[in-house]
Design a protein that fits this description.
By secondary structure, chain A is an alpha/beta fold. The first copy, chain A, is built from 14 helices and twelve strands. Chain A binds a DNA duplex through helix 2 and helix 4.
Chain lengths: 327, 327
DNA sequence: AATAAATATGTAACCGGTTCCGGATAGGAG
DNA sequence: CTCCTATCCGGAACCGGTTACATATTTATT
């Protein structure tokens, strides 16, 4: 059926071992032989079978990626970063959505291992981290962090602080923080940080809870302005929630940013096309993914690295949901 | 290192062949033996190595998925549909983004084959379809269609017609169709269909070009209202473009839907959280993905199917970017 | 020219499963 | 009791690569 290394060997008049050696640039091979083999490979359009290779070597060219939900626009950006970086080095991605469920995470993890993946990049909660700790292949956490494992993430404390500082600076006196689910650590951290910063500023603070998803946010947010009719500044736990809030604000006749100012978190693509453009705290999602991939690759190549916790900077992106300084 | 089938065999006091038989429920195995083997498997926490299995069987539990760009929110919905359906049956997904580039498509396709994937789901342009035609594993096209290959897609003609009919019905007299890149077949088809329908309705038609991406749409659309200041109805080639248009409309002081009505295409999640909510033509993306997965699985299981072209229905989803009938 | 070292290549075992085949045992029919 | 068949199970080959090892040839060294 498919062309095997022995077909190539026969065509080139050598043994399979020799073909393998020229293929991998290992061991010796006479220049003439090398040429003959290369010709045969080309002539037969031979592509080595990764599965056989993987079986013997006990390592594949596959990396497993576990994300909560690729349907949430923050995660595709991460995934693209990972994938693009990986492709450069010839690695491929097996992907699994966990919906934050431990059971699904374990399920994917198991099958990743069964497929001899050489590394795993995962975005899972600390409470679920046990399953990742005793693997004998490299693991890098992405977006989430756990003390004992390498991780790539954005500076949530700085982000929360930045958002809080901005909204105070911009003159808001009664600020509502929309808090996402506390189990999601980065989301919780940005909340805590905003809250502390706001308290130090001596401003009135409301806390309002919301889900993170499109559906959830849109529902959660409906009662926001009933409950806090006088808020003039809102710190949302992510951009989706922020957009839902903008919607609700406009629906209830509030002008943005004149009556309410809103700051999101993440800087997903939506921010720049909604009206008004959403000011937000940018997490460099694509770069985070790329960085995680880079670290995994280094680890796969046996480069011993310290237990890296790679914290990437966030930044405030000013658009139109906040006032210009000086207004 | 990892537990192998021979470890289990030794533990259970039988041969590897016997373990394999109970594992696969093939051939005979005495009830007592079966129990002993199962116990051993459980005791050692044995998980069979998919790679070894795949090498011998010449087929894995892997399906390859090629999408243009997972960063465009329409595609994650497809991917989730595929993945969820596949997981049910124990298949895993290798994923690759092509950015519509033939070179990358081929690259991913090659490595998918090298990994013994049993099937491929792909969203590629007709012009690139040659590479898919002579594979000896099942292929299903998703979102895009090619005459000679099975495909799952939404009814673009109906969608285009529906949007056009609605916008006319809703009283628009000068309608602008935002046309996406003509190489992308479904996008082109919905354009043609809308255009024809509009022409039959005898209404004034403008055609305006735009990219499909967030960045692209946002730029393209900036000159829309300079060029056609009197349009009162807009048919966008997708929801991203539609939202960008809404932005531009509001920025230039137009009220939606009083001054301009806008209809998008796709029904991505954003539609329901922007303000005003975006009326759109819904493609059942998740279901499309699931259906494609279902077909691939059937084909993998040797069920001979006709050259299925599975056309899923679209529907108009009314939100607030169009007027209520009767207004 | 003799010897050592470097180069070149093939044989065979191995990775961890699956399956063909054949031998052994048990149960049933005659 | 014999014979046949169904059941049970292990040995060994195989999937398509890689690599340790052995052997053969070339090149360098003195």
């Amino acid at each position: 059926m498919a062309i095997t290394i022995r077909d190539v060997a026969k065509e080139a008049g050598v043994s399979a071992a020799t073909v393998s050696r020229v293929l991998n640039n290992s061991g010796y091979a006479h220049e003439d032989t090398r040429k003959a083999v290369l010709d045969a490979i080309h002539k037969l359009n031979y592509k080595p079978n990764e599965v056989a290779r993987s079986l013997f070597k006990q390592k594949s060219k596959l990396i497993g990626l576990i994300l909560p939900d690729i349907t949430n626009p923050f995660f595709p950006a991460l995934a693209r970063g990972v994938e693009d970086q990986l492709r450069e080095e010839g690695y491929r991605l097996i992907i699994g959505n966990s919906d934050e469920h431990l059971e699904q995470e374990i399920d994917y993890l198991d099958t990743f291992i069964q497929h001899n993946v050489v590394g795993i990049i995962a975005s899972v909660n600390e409470a679920h981290s046990d399953m990742l700790k005793n693997l004998n292949i490299p693991v890098v956490l992405l977006d989430r962090t756990i003390e004992s494992l390498p991780a790539v993430y954005a500076d949530q404390f700085e982000g929360g602080k930045l958002a809080a500082r901005k909204i105070v600076e911009l003159g808001c006196k009664e600020i509502t923080i929309i808090r996402g689910p506390v189990e999601v650590k980065p989301v919780y951290e940005r909340f805590v940080s905003s809250f502390q910063t706001l308290r130090q500023a001596g401003v009135k603070i409301n806390v309002f809870d919301s889900k993170l998803s499109f559906q959830g946010a849109s529902n959660s947010v409906k009662t926001l302005f009933d409950k806090y009719p006088n808020t003039n500044g809102i710190l949302a736990c992510n951009d989706i929630v922020a957009v839902a809030v903008m919607n609700e604000a406009q629906r209830t006749g509030r002008r943005i940013p004149e009556d309410v100012q809103i700051i999101g978190f993440d800087d997903i693509s939506i921010c720049e096309i909604v009206y008004p453009g959403l000011s937000t705290i940018r997490q460099p999602a694509y770069e985070m993914g790329a960085k995680a991939a880079e670290i995994i690759i280094k680890k796969v190549k046996q480069e011993v690295l310290p237990n890296i916790h790679c914290k990437l900077p966030v930044q405030f992106v000013e658009r139109e949901s906040t006032r210009k300084v000086g207004d």
